[in-house]
Amino acid sequence: MRNSVKRAASLILVILMGMACLTGCTPGDGRTAAQIGDLKLTYGEANFYVRYNQSMYESYYKAYGATDMASVWSGASEEDSEKTVGEAYLEELKTGIEDRYVIAQKASEYGVELSDAEKKVIEECADEFIAANSEETREAMSATKENIVSFLTYQILESRVTEKMKEGVDENVTDEEALTKDISYVKISYATSTTGLGSAELDEVVGTFNEENKEVVKELAKEMADKYDGSDFKAYAEGYGYTAESTTVNAASEYPTAEASKMAFELGENEVSEVYDNEDESCFYIFHMDNTFNKEATEQNKPSVVEQRRTDQYEAKLAEMKESMNIKWHNSVWSKISLEKVGVSMMIPDEVTQQQEQAKETQTLYTDPELEVEYSDKISLMYEGTIDGVAFDGGSTGDAATDLVIGSGTYIDDFEEQLIGSHPGDNVIVNVTFPDDYKNAELAGKEAQFDCTIVGIYRE
């Protein structure tokens, strides 16, 4: 395990953090930011945790052209208009800190501990980080050896205990529990040409939108749904000037929304839905049930049902843990951490890049099924992504495998973390949600499923 801890620590700590501290004033690293069970979270530990995560967030935005991160952080949050993006993100990090400290305190109950050798590796990596960064950067990040060691220790404990918390679920899944159906749907924009519906009135408002026009389109869409005669739905839709798209739906589907998916899933054979108003996309949907049992898709959905059980069990256990612990935040201390006032840049220096390339050259791909994917492992995998059972462009590796470092943040959401604990040869179903601001607008905010095959793990 020593090597796995070394890889996990190095993944974080070889990165030089370039800090742009716009204002000074911190309350002092040793002041208590929170009391979580028996553990005291200091300002310094909290600040280091935030700055590390901030660096990931800012690097993502900068990769897509963002130059003024202070403006990004001070902008209004889409999820909560009363908060800024920075305030909303700090709330997420606050929850993440609570989860980590709570889970870490349960490590002994799950038989998880770090060996003396592993602890020594963590300390060595902390020393390397301190040596690689300027005093100004270390001060802005609260990057003392104590805080770095604490961060790494609790991160690794959390990862290992989390996997233990997910163990033991029932892996038997019936067809009914994984039931997947075939549907078709038409999507009608609020501002659209509806000559196929025979509306001269609407031809005059093509490309425009107001509430009056929206109601006209809604009435025409309702007419289309009401007059459906049970014939071939795709041909019927074409008669109105629309192309019906096909997809699959199950009880957990959320496309285009959970409410719409539930509406479609509950349709009987050859039934059409009422008109569904999706304000987020400024359009109406009409769904049609093509087939109430897709056997192949139902089988493919069973691993997802098992994974959801694992997730549900983890969340239930975590809730119980948090309920049993006293958690108290000292907001006068926590509130001193600002994302707008301190910018973070991740910079991998030439010598580190060279070390990484040399490491790649000395690693060999192993396919032994006894090996287990751990945090910071470089693996080879193949995958195919789908949204509600339908493949999408750029979501597959095709016939060739690709390499991925677990924990690198290369892939969206917690894609990489879901592969931890798997073995070469394993088939792993990964469920993720694309960010709302994803570069491909057609995928933004949507839930996707990736059918992954672990080809092997690179080891020195």
Describe this structure in words.
This protein has 460 residues and is an alpha+beta fold. Helix content is 40%, strand content 21%. The protein has helices at 2-13, 43-63, 69-74, 85-104, 116-132, 135-141, 145-165, 200-203, 211-226, 233-239, 258-265, 295-324, 331-334, 350-362, and strands at residues 16-21, 32-36, 39-42, 180-189, 245-250, 276-278, 283-291, 327-329, 342-347, 364-366, 378-387, 390-396, 402-405, 427-433, 447-459. The strands form four sheets. Strands 10, 11, 12, 13, 14 and 15 form a six-stranded antiparallel β-sheet that branches. The longest helix has 30 residues, at 295-324. Residues 10-25, 193-207 and 348-352 have low confidence and may be disordered.
How is the topology of this model organized?
Blueprint: H1 2-13, E1 16-21, E2 32-36, E3 39-42, H2 43-63, H3 69-74, H4 85-104, H5 116-132, H6 135-141, H7 145-165, E4 180-189, H8 200-203, H9 211-226, H10 233-239, E5 245-250, H11 258-265, E6 276-278, E7 283-291, H12 295-324, E8 327-329, H13 331-334, E9 342-347, H14 350-362, E10 364-366, E11 378-387, E12 390-396, E13 402-405, E14 427-433, E15 447-459
Antiparallel strand pairs: 1-9, 2-3, 2-8, 4-5, 4-7, 6-7, 10-15, 11-12, 11-13, 11-15, 14-15
Helix pairs in contact: 1-5, 2-7, 4-7, 5-7
